[in-house]
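Late entry, N-(iminomethyl)-L-glutamic acid complex.
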Amino acid sequence: MTTLIKHIDSLVTLKNGNPDHRAAPALMADLSEIHDGAILFAENVIATGTTAEIEAKIASGELVADAVIEAKGKTLMPGFVDSHTHIVFGGDRSQEFGKRLRGATYKEIAQEGGGILRTVKGTREASKEQLLERAKRLAWEAISHGTTAMEVKSGYGLTTESEIKMLEVIQMLKEELPIEIIPTFLGAHDFPPEYSNGQKEGYVDLICNEMLPIVAERQLAEYCDAFVDEGYYTIAQARKIFEKAKSLGIKTRIHADEMASVHATGFAAEIGSISADHLLFISDEDIEKAREAGMVCTSMPGTAYFIRMPYAPARKIIDKGAILALASDCNPGSCYTQNMQLVMSLAVINMKMTAEEAICAATINGAKAVGRSNRLGSLANGKQADFIILDSPSYIDMFYHFGVNHVSEVWTKGRRIKVNEK
Ligand code: NIG
Ligand code: FE
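Prediction complete; structure with ligand written out below:
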């Protein structure tokens, strides 16, 4: 069964050269946009071109369209690949947010026993059903805003049992949702209260000797992540965890240089992580290391906005030629949104990216950050037909008219998702 969508005012394909990412200003300016475009697809993209070109091929019998849809006045583009989220969690931190609005900082709240550890308590107490129910609601909201693939992390359990519980919930999301879910083990998110100051190494050993072997054996995660920052994990601890993960066949990604410049990004590049995320305090030297290693630099401007911190130097990262991706970081403490349109809006206004750069960063480069750019992130022939339709004749409207949802349809694997039937 093939479908043709034609007379699309703006068809954004990102297909030219079929690169697995786009880096540097010149290449990121190329969205391979087709006016009055048409796309023919089944589960994967079969052909894209102008409506006249594709219709001519259908007329000659070279291509076959079983169903035809008109898309005048619309924009069709790849769905967003959100490469960093924490949508599985228990408890409620809205009071803590209120406190922050009255002047407390994210750090102060964490030092008082709030922050990540408050969510750890709520997550440990929650049943799998409760965790799944909320995560599904958050994921559906993301889908309705255009997300067609999403990485999801554990990291609010911090015991073997509760980390596994979170990963099992992520597996359930994978089975129940019509989008691609990429599971990440983040046992090294914070130190659990049971392993306070003098005992931190004991918890690192628990991750290495107990948690990671189970995660690998049961294939519960594709990636292992760690929060390497001032007051959290050191590079030495992360090295121990990442070496173990790699020996078990689990790839790595990292929370790096979010609160201070600790050169976690350089370490990640050296150890072969696929992506380093946050980067508010990334050094010039580490940008260069990321570029050399071909490691993705993932910026999540929603976090800087939400905790009132300086934005990551995305402009500099792009200008220096490193690969920049955008993700939501959706979590209950430092960035409670899963709306990628909002993330892109923050990126263009506050990080001085162009609209074209923001689109590349939220699609093909997001796919690169989860190791799926051979299949997701652009509409080149043979890639998965994961796309969104915007209710406007140009992608620029998504940036110009901000704060509203421009996505009217979401399609994955060539099938339309019934977004309102969540
Ligand atoms: O990605 N940086 C560490 N972890 C999360 C925050 C989690 C929380 O506050 O619950 C983040 O920003
Ligand atoms: Fe995070």
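The radius of gyration is 21 Å. Will revisit in the morning.
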